Every structure is written in C-alpha cells, then in structure tokens.
Amino acid sequence: MNKKLIIFTDIGDTIIDETTEVRREKFGVVYSAACLPGAKETFLDLYRQGYTIVMVADGLEKSFHNTMEENGLDHIFSEWVISEQIGIEKPSPLMFATAMQRMGLTDADKHRVIMVGNNLARDMVGANRFGIRSVHMCCSDRYPVKASGPEEEPTWCIHHPEELLPLVDRLEKQLEGAAEQVC
Prior knowledge:
Layout: E1 6-9, E2 22-23, E3 30-32, H1 39-48, E4 52-57, H2 61-70, E5 77-82, H3 83-86, H4 93-102, E6 113-117, H5 120-130, E7 133-137, E8 156-158, H6 164-182
Parallel strand pairs: 1-4, 1-6, 4-5, 6-7, 7-8
Antiparallel strand pairs: 2-3
Helix pairs in contact: 4-5
C-alpha cells in the first residue's frame, strides 16, 4: 500500500557515514562506505511499508550508485536527484523542484513531502525555502547542529536514524486524518 507521505533524503551523514568513505582522490568518486548505525534498517523498513523515497543529494552520481548498491539500498529510491546531474547543489530550489517534477508532484503536494538531511545550510535551508518540511538528522558533529537563523531551523530534529520511523508514522496518520475529513 502506497503511503501519502513522500520522503526526500540526503545521503551523506543521513544514510551513509561520511567518515567511512573510501576514495582514490580526495574529492573523487566514493567507492565504498558504510551506513550510519540503524540507517539501512530504517530506510529498508520505510520502503517495505510503502513509502516513496527520493534521493536529493549533492555529489557524484557514481558515488551514490557505488554506496547504495554496496549497502543494498539502490532499489529503495523512486528517483535519484543528484547535483552532478542537475548542475547545481542544495539549497537551490532546482534540486527540490526537479524531484517534485520527476515524481509528478505539484505545489499542492508540498504538504506531503519531508526532506531528511544532515546539513542545516543546504538541506534545511533548501527545504524551508522551497516550502516543504525539514527533518534534521543531527547525529554527526561534522556540520553545525544549531541553526544560525530562521531559514536553518528544521521542522523536526532527530538524533538517530531510527527516530525517523515514529515521526514518519505520525505524519502519515496526520495526512490520512486530513484526507478523511475532506471526504
């Protein structure tokens, strides 16, 4: 059964532990990396439950194919929106607009979309400016965890990937309740 809520997600320090990335060159393609503890299980569970998951990530396409395939997650994404493909990085609205367009979504669907990411300046600012709700995965100290202004403020903050499950469940129930009220 397909769910109403749609999950856009970053990859680095959201699903993949960036400290485990193996590259041949400093800023080159990632050939191997491990998932954050609990991330693989969380995203596989969301996929099995019928949630639409869309990758919205900055980086090299080959890196994402390598790491998602290695970790058995390549099949969970309905679409892959990658900055290398688009020619621009988050927080650009083009990243989010491309994901919406590829999924056949309109502005009327924005209330059904959340963006999960680790970077306040890219993921939260991009989602907030675009008009979708934001979930800050603040489990890494590689980036600031405190918003420097209103645009960086996430709608929700979680500290472990598993915390996404009850949040998504609650948001799905809210969407289902809103749909019942309309009928």
